[in-house]
From TrEMBL, chains A, B:
Its cofactor is Zn(2+). It comes from Autumnicola tepida. The keyword DNA damage does not apply. Binds 1 zinc ion per subunit. The gene is hisD. Its EC number is 1.1.1.23. This is Histidinol dehydrogenase. NAD(+) binds at Y124, Q186, N209. It catalyses: L-histidinol + 2 NAD(+) + H2O = L-histidine + 2 NADH + 3 H(+). The active site is at E322, H323. The keyword Amino-acid biosynthesis applies. Keywords: Amino-acid biosynthesis, Histidine biosynthesis, Metal-binding, NAD, Oxidoreductase, Zinc.
Length: 427, 427
C-alpha cells in the first residue's frame, strides 16, 4: 500500500489521480453494433447474443413461467432480506417526494413546478458471476415510486439461456414491467432504438463493463438520457486516532473487491492508525475469495497522513469520493463542511455495505470525481420537473410592460408584440 | 404554412419530425480548439478571439470599471424591468428549496438526503445582435440561490472589445463572480480545462450556436456536466374553437423569430381556427423586423387539425414540446394529462414571452423532444443531492444479517465481512 505523509497541495492532483482508460478502440465496436441494431432490430440482437453470450434465441422476453419458477429457486431467508431492503429503500425514496407549490410571483401571475414521471425507462443489470439483484432494488423501487409507466430490464443470459433467479425474482417484486434476456452493447442499443420486441426507452440506468459504459454514452447521441457517467467504484475513509483499524480495513477491502481498478483511500490524522490499518488489510485480505481482485486494487490504494482536519477536508473536497466514511470524533465538522461526496457514512457502525444493500439510501452514485456536480440516483432521477403558469388580465397588465421593454432591448420584436397585442385589448 | 387534417398516428413521426443537422464537420474544429486551449491556455484563447471575434487582447477579464460604466449605459426603465423579472425569478426558484428530511428506515438506521451547491459553475451567454441578458437572470439567479461559490460568465466581445452593457449590468446584479470576454468554442474549452485566468468549472450552462452546442457536448468528455443537450426552440399551441387567433399567431411568431430552424406547431380541434390563425400569421409577419427569419420558420411550421382532445393530447405527448400553450376550455384536461412538455402556458393572457422574461419560471428548457426525460433549468440544476447515514449498534444488529445474506448471494464476501466483523464484536 502506498503511504504518503503530509503531501503538498501541489502534489494532490497526482496523488489523487484516478485510473483512466482509452475507449477509442471500444467505440468502433459499439458504433457497429448500434448501427446493426438500428437497422435490423431483433435479428441483430440475436446475432450478438449468440456471439457474446453463446446462446441462440429468437425470443428474448422472459416469460411469466420463468418468473414463477424463480420464486422457488430463492431461499426464504434471502427473500426476507430482499424484502427488508426493499422496505427501507422505499421509505427513504418516498421521503424525497415534493409537493407542487403554487407561487404568485406578481399579482395575477401564478407559477408552479410539478414533477411527472419519465414514461419509459430502461434498467441494465450485468450478468456474470455475481447476480446484482441489489441494483434492481436501487433502480426499480424509485422508478415505481415515481410512477414510470414502462420499466424495461435487460440482463444477459448465460449459455443455457437463463437469467439468475435472484434477478428475475427481484425485478418482478419491484414492478419491472418487462425483462429481456439481452446483455452488453446490444441491450443498450435495443433500448435506445427499440426493436420489434424491446421498447425504446427515454432514459437508461445501471452499471456495466466498459462496453456498456461506452454504449450508454453513445445512446445519449440518440435522444436517450442516462443516469450518469460511470467509472470504477471508490471509497475514501477519513479517520483519526480513535478509529477502529479493523473496521476501516474491512471497509477498504469491501470496496477493493469490486474490481482491480477500484480506488480506496484512507486519509488519517494519525500515523499509528495508518500502520494499524495497513496490517489489518494484509490479514483480512488473505481470507477473501476475491483476493486476487482486491489485491490489485489495494496495490493502487493510498494511505495519506495529514496534520489536521482542515487539510483532510480540503483533500476530500478536491477528490470528491463516491463513498465517504467518517470515523472521527470531529464527525460534525466533516458532515457540515464536505461539499463533494456521493454518499456519506458516519461512525463505526456504518459500513459502506449498509448503503450498498439495505439501509435505504441508493448505491448508484457518482464516481470519477463527478460527485462535484452529479447527484446519486434518487427519486428525481425518474421524474422530470415541468413548469406551469397562468396569468390573469391583472397579471399581464402587471408584468406586461417589463416584458415589452426587455424583449425590445433584446431585439425580439415578436416577443414584445405577443404582449402588446393583449395589453391593447385590455386598455 | 403546412395544414394537416386528421393525420393517422402512423404518420405522426414524419409530421412531427424536427430538423436535424450533421455535426461531424463541426466536431473537427471543436476538437482542434479544445486541444489547443488545453495545451496553451490563454494564448490559445487570445488566438481564437482574434480569429473569430476580430479583437486582439491578452486580458479577457471584465474590470470593475467596465461594470461601473455599464450602469450608466442602461436606461432606468430597463433597470426597473430587469429588477421586476429578477424578483419574480427569485420568488419562483426560492420556492423550490427542499429541506433535509431525516428518515429512520429501520430502528437505529438514520438516513438523510441533503442538497449542496455545485461549487463552480460556468454560464455562457452568446453575443451577436441581441444581448441575451434575460438568460443571465435565468441562470445566475438560481446559481446564487443555490449558493454556488464561483459563477463564471463568458460572453464574446465585439470588434471593439466590448461586451453589451446590459449583459455586464445584469451579470453584476445577479452575483456573477467573474466575467470573461471570451466567446464560442474557446470559451467552453476555457471553462472546461481552466486557463491561467479562466477558472475550470464543474458544470456549464447556457445557449449558443451549433459550435457552442458541440463544444458543450465535448466538454462532458472532460469531467464537466452541462445543463442539457440543446436544439432549436419550439412551441406547440393546442387550441379549440373559442381561442383567439390573433393571440395564437403572435405566440407562434414570437417563437418563429428565434431562428429559421425554430419549430412552431398549432394543434386545433377547429378547422376555422386553423384558417384564422393562418391569416393572422400572414398579417402580423409583415410588421416584424426579424421577418426573414420568422418566415423561414413559419414555412416549416405545422397547423394540425385533430378531431378530439384525446388525440390532441396524445400528439402533444408524442412530440414533447419545449413550450406548450393551452388555449382551450378543456385546459384542466390538458394540464392534468400532459406528460411531456418543458413549460406550460395556460389561457389567453399567458403568452410564452411572459416565461421568457418576467413571470418567474425558467426559460432554459429541454428542446428536441428531451422534455420526455429532462427538466428545464431549476434550482436543483445548481445543486447535487448527497446522502448521509448514521447507524447505531442497534441499527447494525437490525439490518446487518440481511446485508450479510445479500452480499453473500452476490458473491461479495468482503462486503459481508465488513458487517460480520462489527456484529461479532457486538455479540
Amino acid at each position: 500500500m502506498n503511504k504518503i505523509f503530509n503531501p503538498e497541495p501541489s502534489e494532490w492532483r497526482e496523488i489523487l489521480k484516478r485510473p483512466t482508460k482509452s475507449v477509442e478502440d471500444i467505440e468502433e465496436t459499439v458504433n457497429q453494433i448500434f448501427s446493426e441494431v438500428q437497422k435490423s432490430g431483433d435479428a441483430a440482437i440475436a446475432k450478438y447474443t449468440e456471439l457474446f453470450d453463446g446462446f441462440k434465441t429468437e425470443e428474448t422476453r422472459v416469460t411469466a413461467m420463468e418468473i414463477d419458477e424463480s420464486r422457488n429457486l430463492i431461499s426464504q431467508e434471502l427473500k426476507d432480506a430482499i424484502f427488508l431492503a426493499k422496505q427501507n429503500i422505499e421509505k427513504f425514496h418516498s421521503a424525497q417526494k415534493t409537493e407542487k407549490i403554487i407561487v404568485e410571483t406578481s399579482p395575477g401571475v401564478k407559477c408552479w413546478q410539478e414533477k411527472r414521471p419519465i414514461q419509459k425507462v430502461g434498467l441494465y443489470i450485468p450478468g456474470g458471476s455475481a447476480p446484482l439483484f441489489s441494483t434492481i432494488l436501487m433502480l426499480a423501487v424509485p422508478a415505481a415510486l415515481a410512477g414510470c409507466k414502462e420499466v424495461v430490464l435487460c440482463s444477459p443470459p448465460n449459455r443455457e439461456g437463463k437469467v439468475h433467479p435472484a434477478i428475475l425474482y427481484t425485478a418482478d417484486l419491484c414492478g419491472v414491467t418487462r425483462i429481456h434476456k439481452v446483455g452488453g452493447i446490444q441491450a443498450i442499443a435495443g433500448m435506445t432504438f427499440g426493436t420489434e420486441t424491446i421498447p425504446k426507452v427515454y432514459k437508461i440506468f445501471g452499471p456495466g463493463n466498459q462496453f456498456v459504459t461506452v454504449a450508454k454514452q453513445l445512446s445519449t447521441r440518440h435522444n436517450v438520457a442516462i443516469d450518469m457517467p460511470a467509472g470504477p467504484s471508490e471509497l475514501l475513509v477519513v479517520a483519526d486516532e480513535d478509529a477502529n483499524a479493523a473496521y476501516i480495513a474491512s471497509d477498504l477491502l469491501s470496496q477493493a473487491e469490486h474490481g482491480a481498478d477500484s480506488q480506496v483511500i484512507l486519509v488519517a490524522t494519525s500515523k499509528e492508525l495508518i500502520d494499524a490499518v495497513e496490517g489489518e488489510v494484509e490479514t483480512q485480505l488473505q481470507q477473501l475469495p476475491r483476493k486476487e481482485i482486491a489485491e490489485k486494487a489495494i496495490e493502487n490504494s493510498r494511505l495519506i497522513y495529514v496534520e489536521n482536519q482542515d487539510t483532510a477536508l480540503e483533500l476530500i473536497n478536491e477528490y470528491g469520493p463516491e463513498h465517504l466514511i467518517i470515523c472521527s470524533v470531529a464527525e460534525e465538522f466533516y458532515i457540515e463542511n464536505v461539499q463533494n461526496a456521493g454518499s456519506v457514512f458516519i461512525g463505526k457502525f456504518t459500513p459502506e455495505s449498509a448503503g450498498d444493500y439495505a439501509s435505504g439510501t441508493n448505491h448508484t452514485l457518482p464516481t470519477n470525481g463527478y460527485a462535484k456536480q452529479y447527484s446519486g440516483v434518487n427519486l428525481d432521477s425518474f421524474l422530470k420537473s415541468m413548469t406551469f403558469q397562468k396569468i390573469s388580465e391583472e397579471g399581464i397588465k402587471e408584468i406586461g410592460p417589463a416584458i415589452e421593454l426587455m424583449a425590445e432591448a433584446e431585439g425580439l420584436q415578436a416577443h414584445k408584440n405577443a404582449v402588446s397585442l393583449r395589453l391593447r385589448e385590455l386598455e
